[in-house]
């Protein structure tokens, strides 16, 4: 099965279109004001309206209230919600969209238990853990911690770059990978060449 790719932290139309041209399957929009990749609702709506068909759009939230999520869903028509905070499974399921749950791989975390706890999720996104930081650390974690029987059901994130993605795909064999900082010229601004190299690395990892 082909490894899918999500390019996250999109803030500009030209970056979104560059990612699509490179073959990205999904684009992520960060609705978390402390993030340097935060995007306003109107800005995200304009970018999403510029996209061709068959590109999945993902809204990322961190412990957001219901009203904020409802506004984004209504105004942007987002396809999928990604929860990156301490949201419980019941809360994740309340918003009328399929969803994925980000799990930070801190010491002692059991991926099998997390999968069982969030059984209603479309997938789990496994990310690196740094205390107090909900994501976007640019750090990897020990991929050997991912049970082989779960690999085809997870999205691998955390410190992925054009230089390590082929090795990551080859070792983990995830359903999908998620990259943000690893393909940026600066925070929130993507590098079209880095996106191309990242996509080639994904392909190389599957050969």
TrEMBL record:
Protein keywords: Amino-acid biosynthesis, Aromatic amino acid biosynthesis, Isomerase, Tryptophan biosynthesis
Signal peptide: none
Coiled-coil ranges per UniProt: none
Domain of life where this protein originates: Bacteria
UniProt-listed Enzyme Commission number(s): 5.3.1.24
Catalytic activity: N-(5-phospho-beta-D-ribosyl)anthranilate = 1-(2-carboxyphenylamino)-1-deoxy-D-ribulose 5-phosphate
Record carries keyword Nucleus: no
Known pathway: Amino-acid biosynthesis; L-tryptophan biosynthesis; L-tryptophan from chorismate: step 3/5
N-(5'phosphoribosyl) anthranilate isomerase (PRAI) domain span: 5-199
Biological process, per Gene Ontology: L-tryptophan biosynthetic process
Molecular function via GO: phosphoribosylanthranilate isomerase activity
First-tier enzyme category under EC: isomerase
Similarity comment text for this entry: Belongs to the TrpF family.
UniProt name for this protein: N-(5'-phosphoribosyl)anthranilate isomerase
Record organism: Thiolapillus brandeum
